[in-house]
Amino acid sequence: MAAVGPLARVARLGFSICRNQRVLLNRSSQRRGIASCVDPAHGLTDEQKEFQKVAFDFAANEMAPHMAEWDQKEIFPVETMRKAAQLGFGGIYVQPDFGGSGLSRLDTSVIFEALSTGCVSTTAYISIHNMCGWMIDTFGNNEQREKFCPDLCSMEKFASYCLTEPGSGSDAASLLTSAQRKGDHYILNGSKAFISGGGDTDVYVVMCRTGGKGPKGISCLVVEKGTPGLSFGKKEKKVGWNSQPTRAVIFEDCEVPVSNRLGEEGQGFGIAMKGLNGGRINIASCSLGAAHACVQLARDHLLVRKQFGETLSNNQFLQFKLAEMATKLVASRLLVREAATALQENRSDAVSLCSMAKLFATDECFNICNQALQMHGGYGYLKDYAVQQFVRDIRVHQILEGTNEVMRMIISRNLLTES
């Protein structure tokens, strides 16, 4: 399959590239340009700026106008995501020979940050889908890559990542879902919890126990929807992330071909952790997009909202708060991009930097969004205003892809064990 990158796709489909990166603000707000001190294009190559402009344009035109409806009606926006895939966003860091865009981790971070200004929940699912595609592309053989990657990159099929279980969240190495080999099949039994896309997606990348206790007994199987013995729990009711369904994934004597195993038996935990390193960068990048949008929303609100006879922008306390928000946004962005570069280069500090980026960016970006809501006063608590949805959607980023407490454990362990 010939390699077709995002820009080639854009040219072919006649998509216009937005030359001024923007987010769609509240209906009553005026569109304004990005302040130079928080401009996410700083430091990027010309090519990266083009990717970014395409993503910002897609976020503003295809996602932001529907963000509230997707949230309130819990719509999984399949067709919108397939439009994103036409731009190359279905397999951003999957290799081009089977339909991917072949971009770097930094390129990917830039794209997810921009897309998240339009809808965090939808972008976060796209990031998980990309992670699954990368795992198959990286650890699968050519037959597996040919079977799964093209449909995942085009988003004709959607993927879910299945690691967490009801009894094993942060302690992932203690997972209990078992796979007993019988001839050319594994018999899979157990359940996974909190699975994004569960029930609505087509491909499940499942970590399961084929050996003894601990991480060395874990393998990775790709389970296809429709396989006998695969079923799903009820759709969870969540605070945020409502444009993507979340369900338990249940295996009851589920027969999975041995040919669907990624890598060798016992390599699953390593595959899972390598996937999560990138996932942490991805989810931190989604937090950046939310925080960027909220800084814009807060600035616009301060410029137009009047109290005590003058606009809130003249209040020094709020000026200082806005300055702190902007500073934390830029600091978070720089750390995330440094971690993305370290991961791409396979540097020795990559795991720690990914953990630092996830910890710092998801904490600080949530604080930025929450402060933006506070600046809106009572209006910020109304669902007519986008700021409350950004707050709800990124709160979970401090929990998933490894809780921020686990990130602290990883960072401190590295500091204390390096000689």
Short structural summary:
The chain has 419 residues and is α+β, with helices and mostly antiparallel strands.
SSE blueprint and pairings:
Layout: H1 6-13, H2 46-63, H3 67-73, H4 78-86, H5 105-116, H6 120-139, H7 142-153, E1 159-162, E2 178-182, E3 185-196, E4 203-209, E5 218-224, E6 230-232, E7 246-257, E8 261-262, H8 268-304, E9 306-307, E10 310-311, H9 316-344, H10 350-375, H11 386-395, H12 404-417
Parallel strand pairs: 1-4
Antiparallel strand pairs: 2-3, 3-7, 4-5, 5-8, 6-7, 9-10
Helix pairs in contact: 2-5, 5-8, 5-9, 6-7, 6-8, 8-9, 8-10, 8-11, 9-10, 10-11, 10-12
EC number: 1.3.8.5
Protein name: Isobutyryl-CoA dehydrogenase, mitochondrial
Pathway: Amino-acid degradation; L-valine degradation
Descriptive notes:
The chain has 419 residues and is α+β, with helices and mostly antiparallel strands. The protein folds into 3 domains: 46-157, Butyryl-Coa Dehydrogenase, subunit A, domain 1, CATH 1.10.540; 160-265, Butyryl-CoA Dehydrogenase, subunit A, domain 2 (Beta Barrel), CATH 2.40.110.10; 269-417, Butyryl-CoA Dehydrogenase, subunit A, domain 3. It has 12 helices and 10 strands. The strands form 3 sheets. It has a 4-stranded mixed sheet with strand order 1-4-5-8. Strands 2-3-7-6 form a 4-stranded antiparallel sheet, with no helix packed on it. A two-stranded antiparallel ribbon has the order 9-10. A hairpin with an 8-residue loop joins strand 4 and strand 5 (218-224). The model is unreliable at 6-32 (pLDDT under 50).
